[in-house]
UniProtKB/TrEMBL annotation, chains A, B, C:
InterPro entries for this protein: Ammonium/urea_transptr, Ammonium_transpt, Ammonium_transpt_CS, NH4_transpt_AmtB-like_dom
UniProt entry tagged with the keyword Membrane: yes
Residue stretches making up the Ammonium transporter AmtB-like domain: 1-394
Name of protein: Ammonium transporter
Family: Belongs to the ammonia transporter channel (TC 1.A.11.2) family.
Lineage: Bacteria, Pseudomonadati, Bacteroidota, Flavobacteriia, Flavobacteriales
Length: 402, 402, 402
């Protein structure tokens, strides 16, 4: 569990690499700053209140709070806390590393045009309140976990819905309210590709994320049970591989081009897709879930373009659409498949969706109406780095010195 | 074992960094694409058939196959599978991460001039068939493992021969049939250095590979035995350090220059060299093996140049020559040293060599005669990225914006 | 412990990224070379003599030596070695990874102007002799560990003083004797910012260091005790987050600018600050220690500039000043707080300081008076890469190819 916590922490490096790799150089510092802000403030927010909002103990199933800060009563801190599986501190830290992920997903989608101040406010509220409340509905023992009575209900192993779609809904609302980057759509609304500035870092980012998913899904077994943990790692990796290959094949057929970013997003799609049921699937089922997720990636990216939304890193497709797919897949494949389960899954997707859409819209609209959420045209064209941070990402970079 | 699997997976990030760092910018996307292809397709091929080809159970010692896909019978999946050491799933995933390595080694050697389609075909066959068949001869309980009767035979702890030389032989045949990059040799056959475009990433790649070797060798203990595992990590790290220092000293003496890439390749040479006997050596022996490997690196790189082969990343020297050195070293140093063992080692090196040379030559020649394996002169000069992938690695990169 | 060793090893990647990211492109190869040298030679020096100098067994409390090389008597190598916690090999390798850290800290401070030969000599002596001698005073059971009798004394959990301040004192002396980079101070002594060339790598470096600290502090528990280890990971991460946020807030208030490098150094300051007492603090105390460390970072960087010292990466502030702060904090907060303990802490800080200042000054002055320690003006202006290594870090880098 502690090793997994370290791996999930390392995912933030992956997110940062991916995000700056796929965006323009002039906004690199800004994106790095946002990511560092999310990691540090996200963890502190989770410490101050998020953890006890997500795991409130006995509560009404919708909203509960166990108080500020962490326990310091030594008695509760040993592994007996979780029947020998892990300690209270591990629990907090592992979950805290997850919490920041939701805001990071939004960060990628709104890159290159959002004002940093309002984004910080959004992050604090979304990580500090929205994410843990949704989480409490299932992982905290809330109403989603008992939809079908004491023994049945919504199932989301490691967060296709509770982490990825929560971030994805926030991203969708944010890019809708924020508008597209200057130059993304021409006068007729035709999308134009805005290439990123550092594909090696983007590729490294995806590999780091895959590595981190070993911790994300492996640690979500919440015990060292080697049979189940190793099955989870196997289904996770096979879904990732299948997602990548599928997106590669579909995009090559569709666009006659070996597109690296589709391959990469396909891997991420496969990972998000398997996350809800990584412990329920056979290897064959994991491959099928990945293959479908990869195809969804290619279609989803085209769809987002079609509806004139601007998502520089494909966050909505990867985290929201594949998150929904993975959640529903639990009702279609694997040990829990069945119509009842499918309906529980649909309910969970819907409940999280409605809550996230409403809260994200309220937060962002409030910010938009007051301080504004978008940088000036001049700042967007010249880059956020120099305007908000007074520095370039590679200011000393020179060519062919000798 | 599961942590080690994660570390071995992470080695692919190291390989990707090393390979793009030491090559030219215009082929970066192509190399990243190949690496991502290898990881994903390699894992799927190993899932479909490779694992059961490598571990066929009872077989004739040369070729056996236990069927497609993985077991799903729950009874066999617990740690009892391996006397408590690890589970069936862990076994598959750990070995699957190794499998892709062989193709990655070839990828570096043929970089900057091979057609991507034929390379994909080669990868599928080499990872899917050649690697697991050679592996079955030893790790699957085949004829190499019983050369000296039931209790003695070839020894290759973590794959100096079975992984590194298998990749190395493929690389040697491939660069011989493929020819050198335009500009590598002048009219008199004198080699010219073609510097890479990103030495920081190359350095990071070597450090990530060293980290990954903690999993590669540490996990090959195939149990959590702390005494042996920690000895293996110690010999591995000491050989890496000695290999680096040795290559640095020899190359500084030979060329009057503090050559970073020699230092880096020396570390890799030390790592490959210790891999066959990491569990048999004392720390002093590990240092000696590393020191010799480092010297081999400097000599090997000069030799490859001398015979007019073009290996942009030094893959043949690192993986093949040091792989052979490490395999033979098991007969010279450590717990198994002796003339009989030396001959077993030589037999293993020879058997793997002949099989890899023949199969690699057949695959590559068949591809060469049919679809061709080399890109056009125009494509090579302008870069594979724009021709095969329609994008630049750093397309938005700008200098001194403000 | 072994996983932690791997993570501590990985910190060297973090240091390398941070250091090259914050310095100029023309010295990148030089910095990478120095870092690779430190890792490999540091480990070998620790193997040859450092380990037995640091853990001499029974000794006079000031200086002892248990002989060259490592034990190879199998009996002593099992986990019984440390009451079941870890093996002799793990002990060596984990401590060996620490040893190199001290020299890496110096490396960052003297970057861009030190001659590589003398730096290598300094590294060999400092890692091989100075670091292990100071370490033996506490971790080897020396006089600092028994300042207050058998049961009380100086306390430094994972090395705020024994690792970080040892490196920090060396860095301080080195930059004082070496002088500032050309252009760092104008004629009136006013400091000028010399921006680094690769902020994404610098950011990645800090995240990798944070990850590595999971091993640095987590492994320093020296057993798998889950309750204490998980508490240590929690205090470590909370202090890092608090340090970053504090430095961000203070620097934003002071300079009206969202400064990424202050945020990053704040995280490092928090990590160094918690290192001495990570196992003694409650989460709240960890946050307070981090908040103060973050503020110290902003003030310390300004102070170093004010006294006209040139520390390109802020090593003295991060490792020395925050190292002292963290050490003293053990006497102020947590389970050992009290005036006696505070005086023990002060004594440890002072003893390490005096010894490091004297030895570093002797080594560096001797080098300065003989071979010289500073590159020529021409070399500094044109870059160390081309002069000492004959290569550029990104020699093939091109813009907008198509």
């Amino acid at each position: 569990m502690m090793v997994c916590t370290a791996l999930v922490f390392f995912m933030h490096t992956g997110f940062a690499f991916l995000e700056i790799g796929l965006t323009r150089q002039k906004n690199t510092i800004n994106i790095l700053f946002k990511n560092i802000f999310i990691i540090t403030v996200g963890l502190l927010m989770y410490y101050i209140g998020g953890f006890n909002l997500m795991y409130p103990g006995e509560f009404n199933g919708f909203l509960g709070f166990a108080g500020f800060g962490l326990e310091t009563d030594a008695a509760g801190l040993t592994p007996e806390y979780a029947d020998g599986g892990y300690t209270y501190w591990t629990d907090f830290l592992f979950q805290g590393m997850f919490a920041a992920t939701a805001a990071t997903i939004v960060s990628g989608a709104v890159a290159e045009r959002i004002k940093i101040g309002p984004f910080m406010v959004f992050t604090i509220i979304y990580v500090g309140l929205v994410y843990p409340i949704v989480g409490s509905w299932q992982w905290g023992g809330g109403f989603l976990s008992t939809l079908g009575g004491d023994d049945a209900g919504f199932y989301d192993f490691a967060g296709s819905t509770l982490v990825h779609s929560v971030g994805g809904w926030g991203a969708l609302i944010a890019i809708w309210l924020l508008g597209s980057r200057i130059g993304k759509f021409d006068e007729d609304g035709k999308p134009k590709a805005i290439p990123g500035h550092n594909n090696p870092l983007a590729t490294a980012g995806v590999l780091v994320l895959w590595l981190g998913w070993f911790g994300f899904n492996g640690g979500s077994v919440l015990s060292g049970d080697p049979a189940l943990t190793s099955l989870v790692l196997t289904t996770t990796s096979l879904a990732a591989a299948a997602g990548g290959v599928s997106a590669f094949l579909v995009s090559t057929l569709a666009y006659k081009n070996y597109d690296l970013t589709m391959f990469l997003n396909g891997i991420l799609g496969g990972l998000v897709g398997i996350t809800a049921g990584a412990d329920l699937m056979s290897p064959n089922e994991a491959v099928v879930i990945g293959l479908i997720a990869g195809a969804i990636i290619v279609g989803g990216v085209a769809l987002i373009d079609r509806i004139r939304l601007d998502d520089p890193v494909g966050a909505v497709t990867v985290h929201l659409i594949c998150g929904i797919w993975g959640t529903l897949a639990v009702g279609i494949f694997g040990d829990k498949a069945g119509m009842d389960q499918f309906l529980y899954q649909l309910t969970g997707v819907g409940a999280a969706g409605v809550f996230c859409i409403v809260t994200a819209a309220i937060i962002i609209l409030a910010l938009k109406k007051t301080v504004g959420i978008r940088v000036s045209r001049e700042e967007e064209l010249e880059g956020l780095d120099i305007h908000e941070h007074g520095m370039d990402a590679y200011s000393d970079f020179r060519l062919n010195q000798h």
